[in-house]
Amino acid sequence: MQEENSITESEAVEATSDPASGSSLSRGKFLAGAAVAGLAVGAPGVAKAASGRRNAALAKGLMPGMIGGPTGFPGAGRYQYPANSEEGRAIQGLKALRKAGKAPGTLVVQALDFARPQFLNTFPKGATASIAGIFERETGIKLKFIETSPATEYATNIRNASTKNGSFDIVTGAIEDTGDYANSGLLLPLDGFVAKYRPSWNDPKYGYAGGRSTVNLFTKYEGETYWVAFDNDTQVYAYRSDLFNNPTEKANYEDKYGQPLRVPVTWDEQARVAAFFHRPDAPKPLYGSVERKGPFWGKVNWQHRFLCSADPNQYYFKPDGSANVNNKAGIRAATEHLRSLQWSEPGALSKDYIGQYQLYGDGSGVQGGTFPNVTKLVPGDPALDKGGFGKFLRSDVMPGRIVNGKLIRRSAIHYNISYGVNRFSPKKNHEAAYLFLQWVGGARMFTYLTANPAGFQDPHHTRSLSDPLVIAGYKATTINALKQIIPRTAPPITIRGAGEYNAALDEELQKMLTKQQTPEKAMANVEQRWNKITDRLGKKKQAAAVVQSYRSFPPKGVYGPTKPLKNP
Amino acid sequence: MEKSVDEHNVRQAPKGRLPNFGGRSEKSVAALLTAPGQLVMLFIVLFPAVLAIYLGFTAWSPTSGSDVWHAYEYWHWFDGYWEALNDGSFWAALWRTVIFTVVAVGMEFLIGFVLAMLFLKQFPGRGVLTLFFLLPMMVVPAVSGFVFYMIFQVDGPLNQGLSLLLGRDITILWLENPSLALWSAMVVDIWQWTPLMFLILLSGLVALPEDQMNQARILGANSWHQFRYLILPMMKPIILIALIIRAIEVFKVFDAPYLLTQGGPGDASTTISIWMYREVIVNSRWGFGSAAALIVLILVTIAGAFAVRPIEAGQESTLEELERGDTPSAGGVDPFAKAGTEA
Question: pLDDT tens across A75-88, in order?
Fold first, then answer.
């Protein structure tokens, strides 16, 4: 789905004449120019009408041709939208619904505790309203937020589904919840609205960075659209650049391994680098690999190692629905996951990502997979950046493996905030609820939302990854890594029972990490438990969902330019 | 002539002042008036129980796509019960819960009783100290769980304190070592709920008949004999009630182990409540969870019936003694004889 040409033209105007910035073209000059241009074409009436529209837009703080969006700060024009854009269509649709009495006065939005502030915080300095404020200003519809948290959201929503709770219009969840929420009936299929209002998710310029496979991964279940994506929890590989660039460290590493020190591109190399830097007894302890290991947060580090084991795709299930982990790929990933514990900090098994961020901040963490916002949240944060090492943090693509002579690097995705329409809310609210999501989940508005430092929803639109405010927040290092990572991210388990599959994997890995069982036994147990779940839920149905998940695999897996080093 | 108390104060309710209710008896009118309340109570108590029993016979899950009223479509009789009974993780969780209950309640009782004995006599600051000891009980379990989560961190205050004390670096993995995780959770429960035991036992001790205690002292019973043959037998019903109340509570323990370890590492601190939570909430297996819950209910009821027996037996012997006109004794034991003193 391509955006119409008019948008590109609007963008061209926007690039030179942001009224709020006042940098390239003053308002007076612009109006004068417009008037001259009108006279020049010899159509005074048209020029007058055009000038009138421009004046109206400018009076609202909008650029010419734009119908809405944030105003009042330099660069606001980047987030404003014309009528013929995904945000514009959504706003016009909402206005029409309001006029016809088919939209509610208030939409009730379920949101995570750390996501909500991005809707309510007015950003940046000079901005005239928050996103919720802009929405109300443009549609007359108020937003009411009800909070949930990652720890309780699934349980709450399963209860909501079982009681057909329609007291809120918009449901939030993790990408892993898709199958359960869709099967429980909680999520309304959105394809009808998508066809009607044409969001730009697949558009090369305005769409999701990974293209069609990312749209499939972020929004669909069994071929139907249930979510609008509001996050990007594809995992990055974070490291301390000062250590990797230190001449002494470089020389010592090369002396020891006969290879140059660099950010690891394979898991074998990662282990060597981890062992090299691991100095727990140093006056300032240094831990070679600060991957998350604890319950819920840790399993993703097994997943990275597992997902890069085949060319092109290694997945958790075979096409017949049976488990595909009790094999060389699964056991090797488990063995490496266990091995890396020796280079982790003491207490790694009970720490979450905040603990990991603190290690990076105080200078004890060398490297490890994590969330993309690590470079946004750690530097300068008094609680996270106690040692002031946040400024040295950089991001890269997850290490991988050489398969059939090719270097395969895959990231896992962990959580990823998504929003859908509550099927049990009043039917007349459904369309308006979807339109709100299309509006705020559109390339321009979502870029504006993710630039806001008040919350944790991360960018995934192509447009966001070149936005100055977003880059300023996340740092160029992470944005560059994300451009490589998003198109290489493997789908998580999203089929029905995902919570149960993931819990079984997590529990068996935890038993392994605490020496209660071997990696072989862990994978055998995961296989047994997964197959039991699959059989109970219906192998044929589960197999069909697995095959659909395969479609979410992005075509890219091979990481081109970086050649792996030979093992010493 | 003196009037009896009844003649003075008690007046017969005037006849004909109550509505007639169509000639119904007082009993039937009372039943009629209390019926709405009774029905509400019946619904509140009975409805969830009936629903749980019903769901226990099905494999229904909210993710199945049909609502709870259509759970019969997933009817499978006793399969859920059979699966639970054959599930190693169910029995392991149950066994862990029994250990947790025995150890935690035992420790709470011992510490609570010692404290109660110490607080029996007046001393300066007793009131303030009592309040201080009761404070943990008033802390929200989520807060205490979080506080202890911080305390038990490998670089937390507990290990730091031990390092300082022992003069070497102590890095005990209180929450990550599968052999220690459950015990760490027990510490939280003991810390939080010993005050309740202390409170119950202290009120029991305060209420003991002073004259019998004085009599024993005068007759030469030493402290141990007073405790062993007087206090302990007289406190027996209170102790049993305190133990039963706490055992019932602790058997359902969820907060402490969940907040500290989420039942981990692996399943090392998974109590039966956490196991249920995982099956019902995480795995969305409501039918199976209901079946397992009913099995637990039956087992706990049986255990409870045995636990209550001594109290019932004590009550019966007291009633018999009263009927005989005797003073209820300290569990049928003559403390003075045992103390080597003629009563």
Answer: 999 999 999 999 99
**Cβ within 8 Å, pair B63-A184:** yes
Q: Give the CATH fold of the B79-338 domain.
A: MetI-like fold (1.10.3720)
Q: What is the reported pTM? A: 0.83
Note the pLDDT tens digit of each residue in B23-68.
778 888 888 889 999 999 888 888 989 999 999 999 999 988 888 8
Chain A residues with beta carbon closer than 8 angstroms to that of B151: none
DSSP line for A111-179:
EETTTTHHHHS--STT-S--HHHHHHHHHS-EEEEEEE-TTTHHHHHHHHHHTT--S-SEEEEEGGGHH
The answer to whether A183 faces chain B, any CB pair under 8 Å, is yes
Q: Give the ipTM of the model, two decimals please.
A: 0.77
Q: Going from the N-terminus, what domains does chain A have, and what CATH number goes with each?
A: 5-78 (no CATH), 94-226+414-485 (3.40.190.10), 236-413+492-537+545-550 (3.40.190.10)
Phi, psi (rounded to 5 degrees) for A310: -140, 160
> Do residue A497 and residue B266 have CB atoms under 8 angstroms apart?
no
**Domain extents in chain B:** 79-338
pLDDT at res. B211 = 86
Residue in A closest to B177 by C-alpha: A514
Residue B284 near chain A (CB below 8 Å): yes
- Using CA atoms, how far apart are residues A434 and A216, in angstroms rounded to an integer? 18
Task: Give the residue from chain A lying closest to B176, CA to CA.
Answer: A349
Q: Per-residue pLDDT tens for B108-124?
A: 999 999 999 999 888 99
